[in-house]
Amino acid sequence: MRTEATFSVDFVMRKKESDPHRGYIYARITVDGDIKELSLKEEVSSESWIPGSECLKGRAAEVQKINNYIEDVRSKIRQKYRELQDSGKRMSADLVKQA
């Protein structure tokens, strides 16, 4: 019987040490409890980050651009995971991150 790997993609914001009101967005890839993070290299205001929704609040063009980028990254990571899964390779968070 083949068991499927657990997989999730979450986005988190890590505050800067030099400025606690600003932070960077990271994609957190989890496969079978193994966690890897990938920086999106997007600096945002910590007040506008919504952790539950994993996006920024607001209607400004820059906010919409970053939110769309987050969704693009999420779909690309899921697509790479499916491709790796279809190839039959043993899954790991590092393998998904590298893909």
Mean pLDDT: 90
Gross morphology: elongated
Helix proportion range = 25-40%
Number of domains: 1
Put simply, the count of helices is: 2
Q: Would you count the extended β strands for me?
A: 5
The largest beta-sheet arranges its strands as 1-2-3
Low-confidence segments, given as residue ranges, are none
Q: What structural class do you assign from the helix and strand content?
A: alpha+beta
Strand/helix succession: EEEEEHH
Strand content: 35-45%
Radius of gyration: 15 Å
- Largest sheet: number of strands, sense, barrel closure: 3 strands, antiparallel
Could you please describe the fold and organization of this structure?
With 99 residues, the protein is α+β, with helices and mostly antiparallel strands. The chain has one domain (7-98). 33% of the residues lie in helices and 35% in strands. Strand 2 (22-31) and strand 3 form a beta hairpin. The chain is elongated, with a radius of gyration of 15 Å.
The gist of it:
The chain has 99 residues and is α+β, with helices and mostly antiparallel strands. The chain is built from two helices and five strands; from the N terminus they run βββββαα. The model has no long low-confidence stretch (mean pLDDT 90).
